[in-house]
Each structure stands twice: as structure tokens, then as C-alpha cells.
Design goal:
By secondary structure, this protein is of the alpha/beta class. The chain has a domain of 106 residues. 27% of the residues lie in helices and 16% in strands. The strands form 6 sheets. An 8-stranded parallel sheet has the order 12-11-10-7-2-1-14-13. Strands 15-16-17-21-19 form a 5-stranded antiparallel sheet. A hairpin with a 6-residue loop joins β15 and β16. The longest helix is centred in the middle third of the chain and has 18 residues. The N terminus is likely disordered.
């Protein structure tokens, strides 16, 4: 009998001892070398640099003069820069790596418009999504040289670097001559065709333009007047603010007013006022390929998370994705990870699979998994919800194998933190129960299929009060009252103090789960077979993971209920024995094809099914 597993005891020594957790055994199994790791092998940590660590207070104001409305720095305001930067992120790489993280994805670090918004509603570009210069690091975060140092430092530790990129829009620079009286309502292509100024009765313009579904550059050369829907205007001081310079050409934008997120406006509308690029235009396509290809060439980054991917026409991605993969290959970067943001809040795979199929995007952030995990771990839904969600893996382009490369997450900077959802959905459970349910959710993320993605601060028990700005707390001592009034889960800390505690129970759990996943090819790459689930109430979820290449099989089991359970579960008839990887596993099979699982309330386990292979 060949044992094709590595015990948790053999893995935890290096990872958890460095993390401040007690080592459990012998020499550790480290992650594979950076260039050899497949996409499914990664464990991702997502961080907003501005909110992580302030390594250089001298850049807090980005070199700009004036007050907060000019430079954007106000650490008391949840919507302004707080001081985190690349030097701080680099200094904390050990903290991140000791959780078992193998890849860091960070919010955009490109130069942003420091402040924008109506008077009294201003906020700053601390999040990185209001880009004016796609070639430079925002001075609030540091310099291009410091970004190179960060990438080199991560690579030296065997950690990959994923950039968050935007092709859909730039900062809000373009205004409309028609003014606010219109409410900037979206003006569609039917009522406002490219051939008339201001609608069907207006002056004939852009003669000979054959429509934006014709990609011929000669056709687009005839679109010279952008005033078909609104008349775009740019303040004199901002006429040349965008870099590269071609981005200052207003004919390269849709100029149709604000999206209402449905139908045509979802692709052609401005994203809450941000200047929406005409990504159908061949100049925009080639320009974006040049911009982001150069970040690969110059810095050797390992992947892209693509912001607002579903708001870009599919034909753009059909050109952009192959071009990026080709640039990465030429640079010697294997397994370049590209995943798009396809935002929705339902426990389904349908929309993500549809957009991936239409656009050629290889992967997407797994929004459906997040919602299913929130509902099941909180007890709001039975495990049947997660089971039925996992059965949809077959609809992705490439089938269930594709699902193993989808980055899974529990909460994020847009929707809010996982602990917040669990607290609300479970009926404001007591602290101990809330911690147990949050642990259960993390176990699902690490033991089920997909690439686990930890949102910074979750490992320290951060619990948001809402979405967006309310879910972007500081790891270094915060001056923001809306953050500091929260008691963190699993400790007596608040965000008013520094929170990099390797002894925190969630940090220790993530390190333990990371070690188990690193040691197990079935947990990293295994396909899923449902082995049992409670249909109408909280209870058992059992999934067998099988990696065809190594032959390893792991049974992942979860108890979402408030009481212990003991239940017999079907397993592969190839199984000859059982060995523990994480949690309480049975000592032996009950009979061929069957094991008896016993779990405490909110318990979980991963058990290697030994085979003759």
C-alpha cells in the first residue's frame, strides 16, 4: 500500500513555527519553486497598499502641497489616503509569507487623481481605481524603483505578484457641456447614433463611420466628432493629465453618460462618472496591450486581476488576453494568472461562466463561491446550497478543471468582510460562535476547489460595518473612528493598534490550512465529487477531491450545524485506508467504500484516502 500524502505534522514546522504557532513535527514540505507552480497551487493574499503598513511617512501626501482636498491625505477619513505604501508592504513580506501565502494581489498602484467628487462629497484615490498615469506608481505609494524592489523581494521568497489593472476607464476628467441638469443619464446608441450630434435630428457627423462593431482602423479614423450623445469637455488644467498621451484624446471614450448597470449601458456607460474608454477602438486595444505588456516586461509580474471586466466588450479581451500570455511567455513567466472581476451577489456560476465563454477570459473571481460560503457557514442556508453550486463547475469553459483555477474568496474591499456577513446572517451570534463560523468558512475556502484568496485583515479578525470604504480598515494603528469602534473577532484588539499578530487564532488557522493545501495535490488540483450533504438544515457537507496526476484522494467534510454529528459517508472504492491531514479523521474505513465521520459543531476535517494507486 503506497501512502500518497504528506502529513500536516511534516508541513507545519517551517510555516507555523515562523508564524508564532507551535510546530508539530519534522521537516516541512515547502511550496514548489515559483516558475514550476501551476495556477491551482497558489494561495493568494489581497491587500490595499494604502491600508497595510506605512513604511515611509515622507510620501503620505504624495509630494503634493495644500490640504486634504489637494493631496488626498487624511488618516481620520475613511475615504482618503492613510499612508500605507510599497515600503511598508515590502517590510511585512515575512508576516504574509508565514501564513503560507504564495502570491500577493494588491489594489492598483498606478498614479491616481488624488481627489475627486462633488463639493462636500469628495474622496481620494487611495484605492487605486482612478488612474491618470498608467506608467507610474502613485507617489503616495512610492516610486517605480520601489515597486521593482517589492517585486524582487517577493520573488526572492518564492512569492508571486499579481497586479490589479483597469482597462475599462480612467479617472473622472471628462465633463459634458450639457451640464448636471441632464443628471448625466445614459444616452443609448439607438437614440443617439454616432452619425448625428445630440440625437437623430442633429447635425450629421462622422460621415462614413460604419459602426463600432467594425474593427478596421480605417473605419475608426472616420469617428472624429465625439459629440453624438454628449459634448465632452476637459478642464484646461487637465487636458494633458493622462499618461500615455493618447489617453487625452476624447474621441477614444464612449461619452454617453452614466451606466445604470443593465444592457448596453453596462458596457458603454461611465462607471459612476469615471471616463469610460471605447475599448472597441483599435487604438485603445493596442494602447492597453502596450501599457500592461510593459509592466510584464519591466517588472516580471506573475498575473493580472482585471477590474470591471464584464463592463468591457468581449472582443477586447479576445485580443488582450492572448497578447498578455504571449508577453509573459517571452519573459519566461510560466502559468501567468489572469482573472477578471465579474461582479454579482448570487450563489451561482452562470454569469461568470457566460462572460468567460464570450470573452475568452481564462478565469474569474469566484463571486458565487463567496455568496454560497457566506450563507452556508452562517447557517442561513443548508449545505445543499454549496453542493448545488459546486455541481455547476461543469458549465465553465473547459469544465470542472477550469473551476480549480478560479480564485475563491469570502469577502472583499467592495462587498464587505466575511465576518460581517456571517454575523448578520447568523442573527448576531455570540463571539465564540461567530469565530467558529468564520473558521468554518475559511476551511471551506481552503479545502474545496479553487485558489483561496485571503482578504487582508481577515486573519486578524477584522469585521467591517459595511461595504466599500467601511471594509478597508488599516492594519497599522488607525485614526479612523468608523474603524476603531469595532471589536475584532478572536482577540481584544481594535484597529486603533497595530494588527500583525501571528498568534491570532485566525492567522494560525490560515497557516495550518495553507500547510495542508501545500502538502496535498488533491486539495490544490483535485476535481470534486459530492459524497453527501444535509438537504434542508445545517449539517454535513462531504466532498471527495481527486487529483488524477498523483492519484491522491482527499475527503473534505464540514459540519455547519450547532451540534456534533456522526454520519457514514460514501468514498471511492479505491480507498484502502484513511489518514488525517486536517481535523478529526476516522482511524479506518467502516467497510469498502464507506467511512464514518464524527465532527463537533462547526467542525471540519480533510482526510487522505489511502489507495494502492
Amino acid at each position: 500500500m503506497t501512502r500518497i500524502f504528506v502529513s500536516l505534522a511534516a508541513v507545519l514546522c517551517a510555516q507555523t513555527a515562523l508564524a508564532g504557532a507551535p510546530a508539530r513535527g519534522n521537516a516541512a514540505a515547502a511550496p514548489a519553486p515559483l516558475a514550476e507552480r501551476q495556477l491551482e497551487d497558489e494561495i493568494i493574499y489581497f491587500v490595499l497598499p494604502d491600508r497595510f503598513e506605512n513604511g515611509d511617512p515622507a510620501n503620505d501626501r504624495g509630494g503634493l502641497k495644500g490640504g486634504p482636498l489637494q493631496h488626498g491625505f487624511d488618516p481620520t477619513h475613511k475615504g482618503f489616503y492613510h499612508g500605507g505604501d510599497l515600503k511598508g508592504l515590502t517590510a511585512r513580506l515575512d508576516y504574509i509569507q508565514n501564513m503560507g501565502v504564495t502570491a500577493i494581489w494588491f489594489a492598483p498602484i498606478f498614479k491616481n487623481k488624488p481627489v475627486q467628487g462633488k463639493p462636500g462629497e469628495e474622496s481620494a484615490g487611495y484605492h487605486g481605481y482612478w488612474v491618470t498615469d498608467f506608467t507610474s506608481v502613485d507617489p503616495h505609494f512610492g516610486t517605480n524603483a520601489e515597486f521593482k524592489s517589492f517585486v524582487d523581494a517577493a520573488h526572492a521568497r518564492g512569492m508571486k505578484v499579481y497586479m490589479d489593472i483597469i482597462t475599462n476607464h480612467t479617472a473622472d476628467v471628462i465633463g459634458y457641456a450639457e451640464g448636471e441638469a441632464t443628471g448625466y443619464a445614459y444616452r443609448g446608441k439607438g437614440d443617439y447614433p454616432f452619425s448625428r450630434r445630440g440625437g437623430p435630428g442633429g447635425k450629421v457627423i462622422n460621415q462614413g463611420f460604419a459602426g463600432d462593431d467594425n474593427p478596421d482602423p480605417a473605419n475608426w479614423a472616420k469617428l472624429t466628432d465625439p459629440s453624438f450623445a454628449y459634448t465632452p469637455v476637459v478642464p484646461e488644467a487637465e487636458k494633458n493629465v493622462k499618461v500615455p498621451a493618447w489617453l487625452n484624446d476624447v474621441t477614444l471614450y464612449h461619452n454617453r453618460g452614466n451606466s445604470h448597470w443593465i444592457g448596453e449601458s453596462s458596457v458603454y456607460g461611465d462607471f459612476s462618472g469615471l471616463d469610460d474608454l471605447a475599448t472597441e477602438h483599435p487604438r485603445v486595444v493596442s494602447g492597453m496591450i502596450d501599457i500592461f505588456g510593459k509592466w510584464i516586461d519591466d517588472y516580471g509580474i506573475d498575473g493580472f486581476r482585471i477590474d470591471t471586466a464584464k463592463h468591457v466588450n468581449p472582443e477586447f479581451w479576445q485580443q488582450f488576453v492572448p497578447a498578455m500570455l504571449k508577453r509573459a511567455e517571452a519573459k519566461g513567466i510560466g502559468h501567468f494568472h489572469i482573472f477578471g472581476e465579474i461582479a454579482y451577489e448570487e450563489p451561482t456560476a452562470t454569469l461568470a461562466a457566460q462572460v468567460m465563454a464570450e470573452s475568452g477570459l481564462p478565469y474569474a473571481l469566484d463571486m458565487g463561491f463567496a455568496k454560497a460560503a457566506q450563507m452556508v457557514a452562517s447557517g442561513k442556508a443548508s449545505p445543499r446550497l454549496m453542493a448545488e453550486f459546486l455541481q455547476q463547475d461543469a458549465i465553465y469553459p473547459g469544465g470542472a478543471k477550469t473551476a480549480t483555477g478560479l480564485p475563491t474568496f469570502l469577502g472583499n474591499h467592495d462587498f464587505g468582510r466575511f465576518s460581517m456577513f456571517v454575523r448578520a446572517m447568523s442573527g448576531n451570534a455570540d463571539e465564540a460562535t461567530l469565530l467558529a463560523r468564520v473558521k468554518l468558512g475559511h476551511a471551506m475556502m481552503f479545502l474545496l476547489r479553487g485558489v483561496p484568496t485571503v482578504y487582508y485583515g481577515d486573519e486578524q479578525g477584522f469585521i467591517s460595518d459595511g461595504n466599500d470604504q467601511l471594509a478597508r480598515e488599516d492594519m497599522f494603528p488607525s485614526l479612523t473612528a468608523a474603524y476603531n469602534d469595532n471589536n475584532l473577532i478572536g482577540s481584544d484588539a481594535t484597529t486603533a493598534q497595530s494588527n500583525f499578530d501571528p498568534a491570532h487564532p485566525l492567522y494560525r488557522l490560515i497557516a495550518e490550512l495553507s500547510a495542508a493545501r501545500t502538502a496535498s495535490p488533491a486539495l490544490r488540483r483535485g476535481l470534486s465529487t459530492l459524497r453527501g450533504f444535509s438537504e434542508t438544515a445545517p449539517g454535513l457537507l462531504a466532498v471527495e477531491r481527486h487529483d488524477p496526476d498523483s492519484g491522491q484522494r482527499v475527503l473534505a467534510v464540514f459540519n455547519t450545524g450547532e451540534t456534533p454529528l456522526s454520519q457514514t459517508v460514501e468514498v471511492s472504492y479505491r480507498a484502502r485506508g484513511v489518514a488525517p491531514l486536517v481535523g478529526p479523521c476516522p482511524a479506518a474505513l467502516v467497510s469498502p467504500g464507506s467511512v464514518r465521520i464524527t465532527l463537533p459543531a462547526f467542525g471540519f476535517a480533510a482526510c487522505v484516502l489511502e489507495t494502492d494507486n
